[in-house]
Amino acid sequence: SVRFELGCRPDLTESLGGILMGQAVENIKGMLEFAHRAMADAATTSDEQLHFVPDFGSHSMAWCLWHTVRVEDLIINRVIRHEDPIWNEEWSNRTGLPLEGIGNPQTDEEAQKIRIEDIAAFREYQSLVWETTSNYLEGISDEDLAEENPFGDHNETVSHSISLHLLGHFNGHRREMNYLRGMQGLPALLTKEGVH
Questions:
Q1: How does pLDDT run across 86-141, given as a tens digit for each residue?
Q2: Is 118 exposed, middle or buried (0-12, 13-18, 19+ CB in 10 A)?
Q3: Backbone φ, ψ for residue 105 (5° rounding)
Q4: Which one of 89, 132, 152, 181 is separated from 141 by 20 to 30 angstroms, measured CA to CA?
Q5: CA distances from 167 to 36, 91, 163 (A)
């Protein structure tokens, strides 16, 4: 929508283009790196803390970590790059996580069955997905963000897919994990960076 609005105002395109479009990929990279650091911080807790679920039902932090990285794998690799996701039977066997599905829709009961059996293997997969995303972003320009890809019954631009399914989505789950951490007496994610 920003590109469309600027396209209607040539004067704004010239004066604001360097700010809005000239830094778009760099801004996305910075925001995703922040989200990834939060997810990495969450994965350093104990197994018990990672799989804690309150009595009234919710996701565990393990579920949030599994769900977010599977979403990123699918969005970046299948939707945007039109390649196979990294996730496969080998990763499923190594981590103990389901081969199929990414967590939505799931009932609370189904979500609470999600367990990361091997956190080291999971973090290896997580890092590989993040590295793939980083390499992809390093190779595109701001103009590439306007490229459209099929998504369900509609098309989405690269910018929309990343903003909706990764950036906004991940920060929602970061807040959820902070809530779960607070219930266990743990500090908020990235407290060492002064971020809550």
A1: 999 999 999 999 999 999 889 989 999 999 999 999 999 999 999 999 999 999 99
A2: middle
A3: -90, 145
A4: 152
A5: 10, 24, 5
Q: What is the reported pLDDT for 196?
A: 59
Mean pLDDT in residue range 150-174: 96
Q: Report the candidate in 25, 4, 11, 50 with the shortest Cα–Cα distance to residue 138.
A: 25
**The two structure tokens encoding residue 59:** 């996701």
Query: What's the full length of the chain, in residues?
Result: 196
Please return the burial class of 133, using the count of CB atoms within 10 Å of its CB with bins 0-12, 13-18 and 19+.
buried
Q: Where are the alpha helices (DSSP H) in the chain?
A: 2-7, 10-20, 24-42, 47-50, 61-73, 89-95, 108-111, 119-138, 158-161, 169-183
What 144-149 contacts at long range (C-beta under 8 Å, 24+ apart), as own/partner pairs, is 144/25, 145/24, 145/25, 145/28, 146/3, 149/79, 149/80, 149/82
* Structure token pair of residue 22: 């000239």
What count of other Cβ atoms lies within 10 Å of the Cβ of residue 141?
10
For residue 13 the two structure tokens come to: 């395109």
Residue with tokens 């799989």: 51
